Amino acid sequence: MTRKATIQDVADYLSVSKSAVSHALSGRRRISPELSRRVQAAIDELGYKPNFAAKVLKSHSTGLIGVVVNELENPHTVALVNELSRELGRSGYSLTLCLAESKEPEAGRKLIGRISNGMVDGIINMLPQLPVEEAQEAADGTPVLTYRRHKLSPVVLDYEYGVTRALDYLFELGHRRIGIISISQLCYGMPDPRVIAYRKYMTSNGLFDPELIFPGAGDMASGKEGAEVLLSLSEPPSAILAGNDLTASGVLLRAHELQLRLPEELSVIGFDNSSLAAATYPTLSSVDMCVPEVAVHTARVLLSMIGGKSGEVPPIEIKPELVVRNSCARPQLERKGNR
Q: Lowest CB count within 10 Å: 28, 91, 222, 244, which one?
């Protein structure tokens, strides 16, 4: 078996001290650009790879951030992880993605406990079933930020503003019978704020009907099932507001299966404004959840916690705006048959 090259081998190859090579690798002391270039060339030539465990022992840092998630099906989750990786990368950190085995709180606690033994420098808890306090207890001293629920520096998303923009748009088109598919189980144990805003809006206009609310799970199957139920009502909706784009794609799919003309016979609006919104047919109007801004704030808060300066980053409020595409139209006076 070929012996692995060591940092001493690199130093001997260049006829310099071991500490000079170490400084070139760590960047903690100033060295000449020429020596830095020679060290890198020697590393490439000899195939030297720094020992990760030794580096951690010296620096007391892994340079890793653990992101704990339930799923990677939702394009919003993927987009958020990508933005977090980009933002934390600017500070020299890399993400390690941890997928919980189930949606039970115990699975999340166990996973956070497993990676908080020196494996990562900080943790982002994106599990809706795991409250702030339980995540902190499981982390046992490792800085952990519970996504959007950090008490000192939260991200406040004004769902009422976003829902109102969507419903105003549908009202302007002439829709009055509007359904909604919620994603309550993704709302951290609280009622879906989209439904709260929807109920308030429709009630104020004298149009609220509890039959038009379908409890979904935030996935494509919920969109299909919700569309099936809502479109089977004796007086079906002419438009549906979905809790996220993945759910909205299920609505569109079921509408296509029912051979509805879209958007003439059914208008659909999603939430997230994810990459999926531009890939559906018709392209999906969606409420933009401002993922880049959320990721920047989340990264800043976690970095402040790692640096022992928790609470220095002020909270932010985001007002989601509707992005209009091709999935909405004026309602038809009559729909062909009761679907």
A: 28
